[in-house]
Target: Acetoin utilization protein AcuB
Amino acid sequence: MFVRDYMSTSPISIYSGTPIFEALNIMKKNKIRHLPVVDKGRLVGLITERDLLTVTPSPATTLSVFEMNYLLSKMIVKDVMKTNPITVGPDCTIEEASLIMREHKIGSLPVVEDDGLVGIITQTDILDALIRIFGLRKAGTRLVLEVSDRIGALADILAVVREHQINVIGVACREKENQRVQIMLRLSTVEPESLVHDLQKQGFEVKSVS
Model:
């Protein structure tokens, strides 16, 4: 579960002297919202669709539409791009990339290796990764249990699952209050009734089956 497995490789990039209207057209044509800015093979910035759509000459209120469009046509990416963008390497984990995006409130991360741009990973890529990790497109059952937060709890649950010869597609855990934890299992079965019965018999609290 590394960035290299989910990033867009060979991303479309532009140079800092690109007119902003041209950059916006590139985004619309390719249905993307983030463009790395590369000069002489080196990443120098990042520009987003929002950056381009919110560009306004100053003082805008004193300009006619013609004058405003004229000034915008003269602006280049260098005037509005984010310089020194936060980057990650291809061996960064998906979890780390998600945390970086969340903490810095950004929607993408250029991926750099050996000083060269090798990819870009976006919030959409992160969501696609989670969908694949949890096997949400695979037929099966979503089972949620609540147990005491103790060593071996998950192993005990999986032992019961193994007895029923059911494959585990995905696992997630969420801490609750009072030393409790919820465990979500994605299972490769559409008939979980006997497994649920045995889990309850073992004392596990089954909160949801879907």
Remarks:
- The chain has nine helices and ten strands.
- The first helix runs from residue 3 to 6.
- The CA atoms of residues 56 and 77 lie 13 Å apart.
